[in-house]
Design goal:
Elements: E1 8-11, H1 21-37, E2 40-43, H2 55-68, H3 91-103, E3 107-110, H4 114-127, H5 143-151, E4 157-160, E5 169-173, E6 177-181, E7 190-192, H6 200-210, E8 215-219, H7 225-236, E9 242-246, E10 249-250, H8 266-271, H9 276-284, H10 299-305, E11 316-317, H11 320-332, H12 336-355, E12 361-364, H13 369-376, H14 388-400, H15 402-412, H16 422-426, E13 435-438, H17 439-446, H18 453-465, H19 473-486, H20 491-503, H21 511-517, H22 520-535
Parallel strand pairs: 1-2, 8-9, 10-11, 12-13
Antiparallel strand pairs: 3-4, 4-7, 5-6
Helix pairs in contact: 1-10, 6-7, 9-11, 12-14, 12-15, 17-20, 18-19, 18-20, 18-22
């Protein structure tokens, strides 16, 4: 057997659903290993499940891979020397491999019916302490008898004849170390079914062989398949690749990651406003580390430093709070123009939400904690409950008035962890003269006994009305404070009412920086309207 001259790895998802977090991490590790080694990253679609594999799911996977920035060297839409890259298009290669095994007498036809096998299983479980696998009934048929039954059209499968004197199946896993499996517990597995289709273990070995895959990096749920696949490699006379099995990603409760833990597929995280670089960084750290300390790792560093040796054997815990923190770090490291480009859909949604506020001054109930958490998971992407024409107009406004939107970045950069928070944080910037007051803020700030909120708003309004030209935010705030001190009103009592009158809430981005970006006539109209609504 010839030694493979270069690193070739593959990511082989099944298009039976979306690209989930565990699959994304596997793809990242394969991609990073290929980039580190100067090798090739192959994308192969294992679409042999006819009831669940769909073209739509394939496109979802490809879209998620592109969003993550995991470019593949060979595969769908790219091509390559080892195509086609869909299993359903590779039947001829499986047939050729099967013929080779027939010639080597490494396989045999099995005519046992499902009913016969079920009866043997039931008998073994009832009388013999458990089912030990296929008993090899048809293995002992003469070649003549077997061929006569095939010629007569009798339904059959083809099984691999596991060598009786094989001994333990051993290999060195790049993550788990030396592994050993007894071969005598592996029965003669089916490689071609009665309907002519091929089983997973056989197809995947044929594909990896024909695509010259040097390293198989995959989840440890495939570890039980490995000794079976090694037997097929040996029967075909092919070189066995290096295996690296990745520990599972678990939820915070220590159980397998699932919907009960929240979002589980890549596009859900995209739609909630996570950055692809942050996702790649975070997922890479679920089982691998650069040095045991560094957490923010740019993808070029990941590509130059990734190694299989630093993959941890322990299962990883998916902590969304840590992902939020990391996403916030990446947001703060962006420049304003890049932020506007990446956040455009959510900025458009903020404009639409702001424009939809009813004319005049309205008071809305403060959302409950559950409602706030639910709102953060609303998908803020094009077409979200918005007329297409209105949506396109809002997106066009983000593009046409990029300077204005870039000025919004400093208002929220330090407080933002995901883009889907943008609409709630910035809708007030598009209210014009209208205000949607938060009931809790009205009660705690404007109507609190002894607050003197009406006086505070009158003082601040006078200062704002007198501003002209390129006024300075700090000077304006200090002028308000000076007048407030003279009137015996503390700074917080003075400025909180103004914040509520301008932004509708006692919690908002920086106040005077916001006012500087707004039309002053609209700001004054908001103050007047709030005073009339709340104080009569």
């Amino acid at each position: 057997m010839t030694q493979k001259s270069s690193v070739r790895v593959r990511f082989a998802p099944s298009p039976t659903g979306m690209l989930h977090i565990g699959g994304a991490r596997t793809a990242i590790y394969n991609w990073a290993f290929a980039r580190k080694s100067g090798g090739s990253f192959v994308l192969r679609i294992e679409d042999t499940d006819p009831t669940r594999s769909t073209e739509e799911n394939t496109q979802i996977i490809l879209r998620a891979m592109r969003w993550l920035g995991l470019d593949w060297d060979e595969g769908p839409e790219v091509g390559g020397k080892c195509g086609p890259y869909f299993q359903t298009q590779r039947s001829e290669t499986y047939l050729a491999a099967l013929e080779k095994l027939k010639e080597a007498k490494a396989v045999y036809p099995c005519f046992c019916t499902k009913e016969e096998l079920d009866a043997k299983r039931a008998k073994a479980e009832a009388e013999e302490g458990g089912y030990a696998g296929y008993d090899g009934t048809c293995r002992h048929l003469s070649l003549e008898d077997a061929q006569a039954r095939i010629d007569a059209g009798e339904p059959h499968v083809w099984r691999l004849a596991v060598p009786k004197d094989r001994g333990p199946i051993e290999f060195d896993d790049a993550v788990y170390g030396h592994m050993s499996f007894p071969s005598d517990v592996i029965d003669d597995m089916i490689i071609q079914r009665t309907d002519g289709t091929f089983t997973y273990n056989f197809a995947v070995v044929c594909d990896d062989t024909n695509m010259e895959i040097s390293h198989v990096i995959r989840g440890d749920d495939h570890l039980p398949n490995t000794p079976k696949q090694i037997l097929i490699y040996e029967a075909l006379g092919k070189e066995i690749p290096v295996f690296a099995h990745l520990p599972m990603i678990l939820g915070e409760d220590g159980k397998k990651l699932s919907k009960r833990h929240g979002a589980t597929n890549v596009e859900e995280y995209r739609d909630r406003g996570y950055l692809p670089d942050a996702m790649v960084n975070y997922l890479a750290l679920l089982g691998w580390s650069l040095d045991g300390e560094t957490t923010v790792i740019p993808r070029d560093t990941l590509c130059s430093s990734f190694s299989l040796e630093r993959i941890n054997k322990k299962h990883s815990i998916f902590d969304e709070k840590k992902l939020d923190w990391m996403n916030g770090v990446y947001i703060r490291e962006m420049d304003a123009s890049s932020w506007v480009l990446a956040a455009a859909p959510w900025l458009a949604q903020a404009k639409i939400d702001g424009n939809n506020v009813a004319a005049g001054i309205t008071i809305a109930p403060t959302p409950t904690k559950e409602e706030q958490l639910s709102a953060l998971k609303i998908t803020r992407v094009p077409g979200c409950d918005v007329d297409a024409q209105i949506w396109q107009q809002a997106l066009r406004d983000v593009s046409d008035n990029a300077d204005f939107y870039e000025n919004l970045y400093p208002l929220v950069a330090e407080r933002l962890v995901r883009f889907d928070e943008i609409p709630a944080k910035l809708a007030y910037m598009f209210w014009k003269a209208n205000v949607c007051l938060d009931q809790k803020s009205v009660d705690k700030v404007l109507l609190k006994e002894g607050a003197r909120a009406d006086e505070a708003l009158s003082i601040c309004r006078g200062v704002l009305e007198g501003l002209s030209g390129d006024w300075n935010e700090d000077d304006a705030m200090q002028a308000c404070r000076s007048l407030g001190d003279a009137a015996g009103i503390k700074p917080k009592q003075l400025l909180q009412p103004l914040r509520v009158a301008v932004a509708g809430n006692m919690v908002s981005p920086p106040l005077f920086e916001s006012i500087k970006l707004l039309d002053m006539n609209d700001v004054l109209a908001r103050i007047d309207g709030v005073c009339a609504k709340v104080f009569g």
